Amino acid sequence: MVNEKRSSASDPGYRLAPFLPRPDRRGRFGAYGGRYVPETLIPALKRLEADFKSAWKDPAFQKEYRRLMHEFAGRPTSLYFAERLSSHWRRGRIYLKREDLNHTGSHKLNNTLGQILLAVRGGKKRVIAETGAGQHGVATATVAARFGLECDVYMGKIDVERQAPNVARMKLLGARVIPVESGAQTLKDATNEAIRDWVARVDDTFYVIGSVVGPHPYPFMVRQFQRVIGEEARTQFKQQIGRLPNLLVACVGGGSNALGFFTAFMKDKSVRMLGVEAAGCGLHSGKHAASLSAGRVGILHGSAGYLLQSNDGQITVPQSISAGLDYPGVGPEHSYLKDSRRVTYTSVTDDEALAAFTALSELEGILPALESAHALAAVRKLPARRTTNQIIGVCLSGRGDKDLATVMEAAESGGGGKSRNKS
Ligand SMILES: *Cc1c(COP(=O)(O)O)cnc(C)c1O
Hints:
By secondary structure, the chain is an alpha/beta fold. It has helices at about 40-55, 60-70, 85-90, 110-120, 135-145, 155-160, 165-170, 185-200, 220-225, 230-240, 255-260, 290-295, 330-340, 350-365, 370-380, 405-410; strands at about 30, 30-35, 80, 95-100, 125-130, 150-155, 175-180, 205-210, 245-250, 270-280, 295-300, 305, 345-350, 390-395. Strand 1 (about 30) and strand 2 (about 30-35) form a beta hairpin. Bound molecules: pyridoxal-5'-phosphate (PLP). Pyridoxal-5'-phosphate binds near residues 106, 135, 253 and 372.
C-alpha cells in the first residue's frame, strides 16, 4: 500500500535513487539485469543491442514505427475519465489509459511491432516467441502476418488447453503453436524452449520477447517500445486537465505495461507510482505470483532480479487467476525501482481483482482484462477521500474478452468478485 503520510507532492519523505535512462554497459539496472545466457547467444545479443540503438535513433525507423502504431494499431489510445467509478469509490478522480483499445486488445502490440520492424531491418525471415495466456503470441503472430514472416510460438501444454481462443487466433494468423510438455507446462517452460530454439537457429531467427525481462538488451528495448503509453498519457493529462496526476497505477507481470506507463513521468517528483502484483489466493497461502512483494533475488531467463524460489533456489510455480501475471520473475528495472523506492509495489488477490472487474464492467461499460483489474483493485484499496482533487492514472493494459470463461466460472463458483467462496 502507498503510505500516505510518508509521501506528499513537495516532500516524498525519502531520497529518490536517480532515474536510470538506460542500463549500464553490462546491461544492469543497479544490481539487476545482465546477460546470463549460453556463450553462443552473446554475439547475437550484442548485435541486437547495436541494431536496436542504431534503429532507435534513425528517423526513418522512428517514422515507420510511429506510422504503423497510428494506422495499424490505432494509436494514440484515449485517456478516459471514469466518472461513475470515481464517484462510487471516492479514491480520487480515476483516469484510464485505454490500452484495451489498441489492436489485438492490449499494450503487447506496441512491443511486437517494434521488435518485428527490427527483425525485418536485420533481414530475418523467421520469428519465435513464448506466450502464457496467448496475448503476446497473438500480437507476435499478427505483426508476423503483416510482414510475411514465418512465426513459431512456444506455449505450455496446459496453457494451450486453457487458452483455446488465442491458440485459434494464432493459427488463423498463420503461426505455428508448439505445445511445451516440460516442467509445469506453462509460461516459464515455454520461455525455456524458446531460448533453446534461439540457441539452435540464432542466424536466421529473431526472438521476440514479450515483456521487460530476459537478457540485456531486451528489458531496455521492450521498455523503449512501450514508453509511448506514458508519453501519450503525459500529454493527454496536460491537455485534458491542465496538470499531471498525483498517482499512477499499473499491474506488473513481467512489468512492461507498468514501465511503459511510468517512464515518461520518472523525473516528475510529484507523481507517485504504484505497481500491482498478483497475490493469487493470498501472499500467506504461497499460491501467488508476487515476485517483488514476496520473492528473493536470483537469476531466471538470462537476468538477475526478484524471483519466486524455494529455499534451495528452485523456481516455484506461481499462481494467479490472471494468466498474464502468472510468471515467477519480474523485469530487472522493477527490481531496481523497488529498492530505490521510486515505485511502491503492492499486491491484490484473485477475489479483489474479480470485484474490480465487476465494478468497471457495471459502472463504466468496459470489460477490463483480469491483469488490468488488478491495477483497479489496488485503487479501490487506497484510503477513501472526502475531496476529489487527487488525480489517479490507471493503465488499463487490455480488454477482458479473453477472460470471459474464467470470470464466468468464478461467478458460478459463488463469486464474480462479490462473495467468492473457494473450497
Ligand atoms: C501480458 C499482459 C500483462 C502483463 O505483462 P506486463 O509485461 O507486466 O505488462 C498485463 N496486462 C495485459 C492485458 C497483458 O496481456
